[in-house]
Amino acid sequence: MKTPDSEKLTVNLGFVDLGRIDLLVRDGFYSNRSDFIRTAIRNQLTTHAEVATQATTRLSLELGLRTYTRADLEAVAKAKEQLEIRVLGLAVIADDVPAALARSTIASITVLGALHASGEVKAALADRLS
């Protein structure tokens, strides 16, 4: 399974703001609308970097990509333990993980970013997602 490197977002903008973006694109400041939006988001994230870093630490979040394989969850089950998953970024539960195994080994799951898992696993963990 290839892990995606981005997530698609939909943004609604007023017509005047959209026109201003198009003007900046037309005049060569940005290559396209997406380039402008990505740059604006990065600038805001840079502005608030310290607050985000403090919150990441306070909430004990793993930063980046975290993948949970069937073998990982089987080892947790064998140890008679449960996971409290806390990820800022992308959490992936492998496609071959059965819903019952996920439910028996994951006590809670908090993902700020994106969670990629089968529909069955997401349904099985719905009451544990925050």
From TrEMBL:
InterPro entries reported for this sequence: Arc_rbn_hlx_hlx, RHH_8, Ribbon_hlx_hlx
GO biological process: regulation of DNA-templated transcription
Domain of life: Bacteria
Classification via SUPFAM superfamilies: Ribbon-helix-helix (SSF47598)
Pfam families: RHH_8
Protein name per its UniProtKB record: Transcriptional regulator, contains Arc/MetJ-type RHH (Ribbon-helix-helix) DNA-binding domain
